[in-house]
Amino acid sequence: MHSVSPEITIQNAALETSIASAKQGLLKFRQPDGHWVFELEADGTIPSEYVLLRHYLGEPVDAELEGKIANYLRRTQGRHGGWALVQDGDFDMSASVKVYFALKMIGDSTDAPHMVRAREAIRSRGGAVNVNVFTRFLLAMFGILSWRATPVLPVEIMLLPMWFPFHLNKMSYWARTTIVPLMVLAALKPRAQNKKGVGIDELFLEDPSRIGGIKRAPHQSRAMFAFFTGIDILLRAAEPYFPKKLRAHSIAKAVEFCEERLNGEDGLGAIYPPMANMVMMYEVLGFPADYPPRAIQRRGIDKLLIVGEVEAYCQPCVSPVWDTALTAHAMLETGGDEAFGPAKEGLDWLATKQVLDVKGDWAVKRPDLRPGGWAFQYNNAYYPDLDDTAVVMMAMDRARRQTGGKEYDVALDRGREWILGMQSSDGGFAAFEVDNLEYYLNNIPFSDHGALLDPPTEDVTARCVSMLAQLGDTVETSKPLADGVEYLRRTQLAEGSWYGRWGLNYIYGTWSVLCALNAVGIDHQDPAFRKAVAWLLSIQNEDGGWGEDAVSYRLDYKGFEAAPSTSSQTAWALLALMAAGEVDNPAVARGTRYLMDTQTEKGLWDEARYTATGFPRVFYLRYHGYSKFFPLWALARFRNLKSTNSKTVGVGM
Question: What residues does the Squalene cyclase N-terminal domain cover (predicted)?
């Protein structure tokens, strides 16, 4: 942690060289049409599921591709013998079982040293009985577990009215799109082709065919879990007697739901799990491989692959809107025609991606609201993202300030209208939903991951507050803005930080909120600022950077969890401190020096650690772009503030 060290002086010439080098490095990643998209890496589960999907479908073996995926999976094996959710992370049972299964399917001998280590690690922790719900469904489809080991998911849920306690629109978008095709699979109980006949009985300490229901997860209430388990038992007994016509009608509704949201090759929900489930759904329903929606979805899955000379993996999704918007911010901060021109081209590309003609699932709760947001991926019109929308809008506003033009005015007006309409009743903003507060659903047996909902969060709320303030709203003139600020004030933790739902973790949340409070015009001497600054200073690493471990998401919260410095987390801390008026603080100079000293010859930064979050404690992300645009952004802001009389950041981020 931070200790007293000699004051560091940043030479202007060296800083300019560092900024110029980073800018050139970032420009090399620009796509021909002006946008940016970087690799988005998760853990070993997605590439393993990809391998198993191909064998489920009985597709011809692509030995070269499978060999490269196997290389990736072997390299990412942890010292504990299994696989983790983040680099150097703790053993994760579900990831380890899936990776072992995939490697065995590819052809790795069970006697190979890495397979022996993995098997021993799994068995020493109670065996594969301890996998999560999604893995249980996968193993049931391969005939390894019986369907009794999975929760009941009646496809008749498709017909339930909105007032019913368990309704699709009371879940998050990612849960909804994953569950709908999975319900068809659960109803028809297919069997994988598995032409090699590969099984993993050796990972169990008992007969896997006799394994029953799942155990209560740590986040689940004993009473609520017992209640829902009772319902699960009743449904299992009653399901065989459901009318066949009702089941057929429900399956048809599920297929209709999926095909309405197909997004072409971008896929259902534009994320891997729903896409894979949809392809398997078509398979069990008897649709041939060349049936257009099935073929389109299958091609879309292959578009998620990252194939190198030696290794390959499958991305969970792609992030072009997010990457382009954040890169545009970094370029606009850098300044000069060489940076502004590409930023403007990226924003022009983003303008074409605004969703103006589709009322997505969010409209169930806001039927009179006009669409106007941006999705995270190339195409995902049913599920625009408030976080992306706010970030895009702030970049567009920055650009129009420079040009004095009005080309983004209509887009900004529509985006602002949509975000205001998506504010939840507690004053906060969520990523995709509004008032998605049915917390009891996280106690159903299916929700052992605890990620069934999309409630308001500090980081997304901060982004929306920043955007509204940058566009001219004030707490005096705008009740939505005032409510958002109040939400942020009451969610500050005792030590001064804020939770980061979509970035890891308290550093990310604190950066997001300090930018918002600054944009609103709250005095930098306000206690909220002072506590947050003191906290950020207290967690600075000896090398001048900042880092935080994924363990900070633990249910039994014990505060910040230190980790080696990373370029992205250091950049967030620096941007947060500068938003708080601390550009002259020696800690900022030390952090800036850390970024300059760790910059590579290509002008960018190496960052192997995962610093983003899919679902806390369940699924993490490594954005390959974060180590490219965030450090440049921080360096350029430091230069800009040091070279002006005003030490106040004048934009929302």
Answer: 19-306
